[in-house]
Amino acid sequence: MLLGPSKSGKTTVRKLLASLLNAQTIVINPKAMDKPYLLGTMDVDTREWKDGVLTVASREAACESGRVVWVVLDGDVDPEWVEALNSVLDDNRLYTVPSGERIRFGRNVRFVFE
Questions:
Q1: Which residues have a Cβ under 8 Å from the Cβ of 14 and sit 6 or more positions away?
Q2: What are residue 84's phi and psi, to 5 degrees?
Q3: Interval 64-92: pLDDT, tens
Q4: Cα–Cα distance for residue pair 57/71, rounded to 1 Å
Q5: Which fold has domain 10-113?
Q6: Which pTM does this prediction carry?
Q7: In whole angstroms, what is the distance from residue 67 CA to residue 29 CA?
Q8: Domain ranges of the chain
Q9: What pLDDT is attached to residue 33?
Q10: Per the database entry, which stretches of residues form a coiled coil (predicted)?
Q11: In 56-86, which positions are buried (b, 16+ CB within 10 angstroms) versus exposed (e)?
């Protein structure tokens, strides 16, 4: 977790560290979108699941086996969406998509809150 006031260099430090560690970064600003767009939603008419931005990023990160991947959540942490990441942040390293699907992360994937 990177903490500090606006314009204090958090992003610069994160980018520098990612470059030094050769980490792929996937940056998401959760506050810039509503919860269904972030997490995904079920179409009520077709009953078809549509992945959200976080779900797409999670799939991409989980597919990387050899490279370090950082999923960066840039902005204030909000209980409305961070609750969905509880099992990602514990030893299970598992994201349960609102559709019920589970995405397991390897030790190479890290979630960074900036």
A1: 2, 25, 70, 72, 112, 114
A2: -65, -15
A3: 888 999 999 998 899 988 988 888 988 88
A4: 7
A5: Rossmann fold (3.40.50)
A6: 0.87
A7: 23
A8: 10-113
A9: 94
A10: none
A11: ebbeebbeeeeebbbbbbbeeeeeebbebbe
